[in-house]
C-alpha cells in the first residue's frame, strides 16, 4: 500500500509553520470576505469603546453629597484611637 499524507499534511509545510502553496490557494477566495469581517469587528469594537468613554465622561456627580475633609479626618482619627 502506498503511503499517502493525511489531509492536514497536504495543507501544511514540512516544518509545521507557514502557509504551503496549497493552503494559500485554498484561502484565496475568502480574502475579501475575511477583510470585510475584520473591518466590521474592528468598527463595532471601536464604536462600543468610544461610546463607553463618552457615556462615562458625561456622568455628573454633583448631586452626590461629599463629606467635608474635616469630618473625614475626624472619623479616621476616631477609628485609629479604638
UniProtKB/TrEMBL annotation:
GO terms for biological process: mitochondrial respiratory chain complex IV assembly. InterPro entries: Coa3, Coa3_CC. GO terms for cellular component: mitochondrial inner membrane. The keyword Amino-acid biosynthesis does not apply. It is found in: Mitochondrion membrane. This is Cytochrome c oxidase assembly factor 3. It comes from Mucor lusitanicus CBS 277.49. Residues 1-10 have a biased composition (Basic and acidic residues). Required for assembly of cytochrome c oxidase (complex IV). It comes from the Eukaryota. The keyword Translocase does not apply. Residues 1-21 are annotated as: Disordered. Belongs to the COA3 family. The chain crosses the membrane at residues 35-56. It holds the Pfam family Coa3_cc. Component of 250-400 kDa complexes called cytochrome oxidase assembly intermediates or COA complexes. It is a single-pass membrane protein. Keywords: Membrane, Mitochondrion, Mitochondrion inner membrane, Transmembrane, Transmembrane helix. Coiled coil: none annotated. Residues 22-63 form the Cytochrome c oxidase assembly factor 3 mitochondrial coiled-coil domain.
Amino acid at each position: 500500500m502506498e503511503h499517502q499524507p493525511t489531509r492536514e499534511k497536504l495543507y501544511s509545510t514540512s516544518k509545521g509553520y507557514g502557509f504551503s502553496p496549497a493552503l494559500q490557494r485554498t484561502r484565496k477566495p475568502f480574502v475579501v470576505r475575511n477583510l470585510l469581517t475584520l473591518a466590521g469587528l474592528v468598527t463595532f469594537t471601536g464604536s462600543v469603546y468610544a461610546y463607553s468613554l463618552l457615556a462615562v465622561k458625561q456622568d455628573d456627580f454633583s448631586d452626590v453629597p461629599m463629606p467635608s475633609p474635616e469630618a473625614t479626618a475626624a472619623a479616621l482619627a476616631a477609628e485609629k484611637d479604638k
